[in-house]
């Protein structure tokens, strides 16, 4: 607080909050205040040129800061500088009870007449004359003094991460940019005592460090202006004013401490203290200088830990330390120099935050990408009871149901040209748009980086432009899916750094959700021994030291999708265990969380089967998929023949052939002037043109008429064609584009050529596919196929 007394040294060096029984200064320099004895308690005269103390605001301030506290409130007044007058400080102690607001208002009025500011230590002590940090017995509110920079932006940052404050006070000062300096308060649900007071003061220091506030509030005995009192400074007189009050808003100390620990620094705030100034030691001294809590030293534990962590992170980033060595050094500083030391979880969070900030400023590590953020080497373990009692919600799937979980690894395998890349592109577009695909569901539009190394740029853009998906889906995925053309690189240390940099450029503001590598073979780095993808040791090196390290570098929770080729296996082997087909299977299969294999059960059919293996969820049935009209769809597996599939396919083809033969015969016979009823046709063409007996022919005709491929001409329509009246149920058979010879001939006047005359045959009736009834055709000129028929 630039306009308040700065972090006063504790007695005996300073006696600004001590009575005459504890000071060596002359008694005349200290005044004990009794509002009923020492001052004129007549109504104060109003100053028409300035503000007067506001008893209502004083009462609100006292309730937030002292409402739950017992004991005595240390109060101080002194002449603000810049008025051209001198005065001595006045210290009083008032009881933290129902009379406190009235007494504070009386003292504020007296101080206003004297041109003096009014301060309190925001905590209570047990005896009059006490004012040291160690004397503070109770504190019930956390405060941060924002006295520089963009005050409004800092307040917004605090509210976004710590929640709305109980009270905001404009202290009276104004920054060079014209903004009002502010005190932001959060009231606790109960007073802090003992060790919790030191914890509260540590929170005040951490908040101030993260928003560029006044660091003097690390100390419990730091005084602060009273809201409702009058500010005098540099010829400015104004009210210390409450500008926001949420009287019922209180915070639990434990929950608030977690929020403070998770809060990132405000934009533009550098948490690394400037140890290059003359009054600060060099970083080498920081590493060997103990730091105690409560602001007892030249800098806080937060500043010391940040400086030490930053030093070791620079060494890791430059490759001079490995990540395990860096973490060991950080833990060593924590154990040896911080009194008491930080919890490991807090140390880890701060290390990861500073690492991310360092990489953002200086780019990927210059030597090794595997020098990731230092992490603890302790092996996590849990008792059965802990696992049974943990009822916290499960993390949301990146692709449900459990197909790709946060931090998971999915491998999509398939033989060359089976369509896995085409399937993958459609899948990724759907995920980037937040739309389900083949039953796989994203929770929202996902940010995806597709590192593909097979298709060159011009053919890649052609494929993307020809993708058969709805325009609205493409529009939703435009900015969320980033694709590389064919790359000539390996995913080694240098290549990983290039990929990490490209991902940061593609998604500068938000974390990546999915990193897809297609295919493994074209980017594979087998490590120092140069093993191939069929070498299990080389595959494990690639997965652990390249792929996972790259993922941890960009976002530890992002999902990985790897596309891989399969070995040649017999159909029986694929049927027994399709995942054995993956190259390097024994290492890869033991590493992934989800495996997908795309293969053709029948090489003559277009359908593919997608086999699914999950580790993080219940088993999923295989999916039968096909590409129809440019879009991948799931085929109902109930339509798949399970027994004697090859023989059944031959029977299907034979039935289709017979149907085509029947239609062709009806066409040819009509052009020769002959039309048939169903019975006549079966009798006339039994065992001819590759057809079977009458029964088989009639069965095929029944199927063709039900599908609308064959219709009928009967009644007047038959008579109009010169056909004999027929009393059968159906009449004469008719097919699309049928022409009937009339028996007449026409002569071409120019060539003299004689040709038979044909008339177009239109159906008059059709067979209803639902009831089998013969119904009139609505428009004979338009051939309509019922739903499910063939065009």
Rg over CA atoms: 43 Å
Placed side by side, the strands forming the largest sheet appear as 16-15-17-18-14-19-20-21-22
First and last CA, distance: 84 Å
Portion in beta strands: 15-25%
Number of helices: 22
InterPro entries: P-loop_NTPase (IPR027417)
Protein name: AAA domain-containing protein
Biased composition (Basic and acidic residues): 1-27
Region (Disordered): 1-28
Explain what this protein looks like in three dimensions.
The chain is an alpha/beta fold. It is 32% helix and 19% strand. The protein contains 22 helices and 28 strands. The chain has a nine-stranded mixed sheet, sandwiched between helices. Strands 4, 5, 6, 10 and 11 form a five-stranded mixed sheet that branches. A four-stranded antiparallel sheet has the order 2-1-3-7, covered by helices on one side. Helix 7 (301-317) runs antiparallel to helix 8 (323-337), helix 7 crosses helix 9 and helix 19 packs across helix 21.
Question: What tags apply to this protein structure?
Answer:
single chain, alpha/beta, Alpha-Beta Plaits, Rossmann fold, five-stranded mixed sheet, 22 helices, 32% helix
Give a nutshell description of this structure:
The chain has 791 residues and is an alpha/beta fold.
Task: List the topology elements.
Elements: H1 55-66, E1 72-79, E2 90-95, H2 100-114, E3 116-120, E4 139-146, H3 151-162, E5 167-174, E6 180-192, H4 195-211, E7 224-225, E8 230-233, E9 236-239, E10 241-245, E11 250-251, H5 253-262, H6 283-286, E12 291-292, H7 301-317, H8 323-337, E13 338-339, H9 344-362, H10 384-389, E14 409-414, H11 420-433, E15 448-452, H12 457-465, H13 471-477, E16 481-483, H14 493-506, E17 514-518, H15 520-523, H16 536-554, E18 559-565, H17 571-576, H18 585-589, E19 594-599, E20 608-614, E21 623-628, E22 631-635, H19 645-671, H20 678-684, H21 694-706, E23 710-713, H22 716-720, E24 732-735, E25 739-747, E26 754-760, E27 765-767, E28 774-776
Parallel strand pairs: 6-11, 12-13, 14-18, 14-19, 15-16, 15-17, 17-18
Antiparallel strand pairs: 1-2, 1-3, 3-7, 4-6, 5-6, 5-10, 8-9, 19-20, 20-21, 21-22, 23-24, 25-26, 27-28
């Amino acid at each position: 607080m630039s306009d308040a007394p700065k972090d006063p040294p504790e007695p005996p060096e300073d006696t600004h909050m001590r009575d005459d029984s504890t000071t060596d200064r002359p008694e005349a320099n200290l005044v004990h205040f009794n509002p009923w004895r020492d001052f004129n308690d007549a109504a104060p005269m109003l100053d028409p040129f300035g503000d007067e103390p506001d008893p209502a605001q004083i009462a609100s301030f006292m309730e937030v800061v002292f409402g739950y506290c017992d004991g005595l409130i240390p109060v101080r007044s002194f002449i603000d500088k810049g008025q051209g007058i001198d005065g001595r400080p006045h210290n009083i102690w008032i009881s933290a009870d129902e009379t406190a607001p009235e007494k504070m208002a009386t003292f504020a009025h007296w101080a206003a007449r004297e041109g003096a500011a009014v301060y309190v230590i925001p905590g209570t002590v047990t005896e009059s004359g006490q004012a040291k940090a160690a004397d503070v017995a109770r504190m019930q509110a956390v405060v941060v003094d924002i006295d520089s920079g963009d005050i409004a932006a800092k307040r917004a940052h605090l509210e976004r991460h710590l929640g709305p404050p109980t009270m905001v006070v404009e202290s009276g000062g104004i920054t060079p940019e014209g903004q009002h300096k502010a005190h932001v308060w959060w009231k606790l649900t109960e007073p802090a005592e003992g060790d919790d007071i030191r914890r509260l003061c540590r929170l005040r220091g951490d908040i101030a460090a993260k928003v560029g506030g006044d660091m003097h509030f690390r100390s419990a005995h730091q005084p602060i202006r009273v809201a409702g009192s009058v500010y005098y400074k540099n010829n400015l007189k104004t009210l210390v004013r409450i500008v926001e009050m949420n009287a019922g808003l209180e915070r639990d100390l434990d929950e608030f401490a977690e929020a403070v620990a998770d809060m990132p620094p405000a934009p533009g705030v550098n948490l690394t203290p400037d140890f290059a100034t003359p009054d600060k030691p060099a970083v080498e001294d920081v590493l060997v200088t103990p730091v105690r809590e409560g602001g007892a030293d030249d800098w806080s534990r937060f500043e010391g830990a940040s400086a030490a962590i930053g030093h070791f992170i620079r060494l890791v980033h430059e490759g001079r330390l490995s990540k395990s060595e860096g973490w060991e050094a950080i833990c060593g500083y924590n154990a040896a120099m911080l009194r008491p030391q930080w919890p490991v979880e807090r140390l880890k969070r701060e290390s990861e935050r500073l690492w991310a900030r360092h990489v953002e400023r200086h780019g990927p590590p210059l030597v090794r990408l595997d020098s990731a953020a230092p992490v603890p080497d302790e092996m996590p373990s849990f008792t059965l009871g802990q696992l049974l009692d943990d009822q916290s919600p499960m993390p949301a799937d990146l692709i449900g149901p459990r197909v790709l979980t946060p931090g998971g690894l999915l491998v999509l395998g398939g033989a060359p040209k089976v369509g896995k890349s085409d399937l993958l592109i459609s899948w990724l577009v759907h995920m980037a748009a937040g739309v389900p695909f083949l039953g796989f569901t994203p929770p929202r539009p996902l940010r995806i980086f597709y590192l593909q190394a097979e298709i060159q740029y011009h053919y890649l853009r052609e494929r993307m432009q020809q993708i058969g998906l709805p325009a609205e889906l493409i529009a939703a995925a435009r900015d969320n899916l980033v694709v590389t053309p064919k790359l000539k690189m390996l995913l080694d240390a240098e290549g990983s750094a290039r990929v990490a940099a490209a991902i940061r450029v593609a998604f500068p503001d938000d974390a990546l959700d999915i990193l897809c590598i297609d295919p493994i073979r074209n980017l594979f780095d087998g490590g120092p021994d140069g093993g191939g993808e069929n070498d299990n040791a080389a595959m494990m090196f690639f997965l652990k030291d390249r792929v996972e390290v790259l993922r941890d570098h960009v976002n530890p929770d992002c999902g990985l999708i790897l596309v891989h080729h399969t070995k040649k296996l017999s159909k029986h082997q694929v049927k027994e265990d399709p995942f054995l087909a993956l190259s390097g299977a024994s290492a890869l299969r033991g590493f992934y969380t989800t495996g997908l294999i795309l293969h053709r059960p029948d090489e003559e059919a277009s359908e593919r089967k997608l086999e699914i293996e999950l580790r993080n969820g219940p088993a999923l049935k295989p999916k039968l998929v096909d590409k129809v009209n440019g879009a991948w769809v799931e085929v109902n597996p109930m339509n798949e023949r399970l027994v004697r599939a090859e023989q059944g396919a031959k029977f299907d083809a034979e039935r289709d052939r017979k149907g085509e033969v029947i239609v062709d015969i009806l066409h040819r016979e009509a052009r020769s002037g002959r039309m048939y009823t169903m019975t006549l046709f079966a009798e006339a063409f039994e065992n001819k043109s590759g057809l079977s007996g009458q029964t088989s022919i009639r069965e095929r005709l029944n199927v063709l008429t039900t599908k609308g491929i064959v219709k009928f001409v009967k009644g007047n329509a038959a008579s109009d064609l010169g056909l004999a009246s027929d009393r059968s149920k159906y009449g004469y058979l008719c097919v699309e584009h049928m022409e009937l010879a009339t028996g007449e001939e026409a002569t071409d006047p120019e060539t003299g050529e004689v040709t038979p005359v044909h008339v177009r045959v239109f159906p008059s009736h059709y067979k209803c596919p639902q009831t089998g009834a013969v119904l009139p055709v609505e428009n004979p000129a338009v051939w309509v196929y019922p739903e499910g028929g063939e065009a």
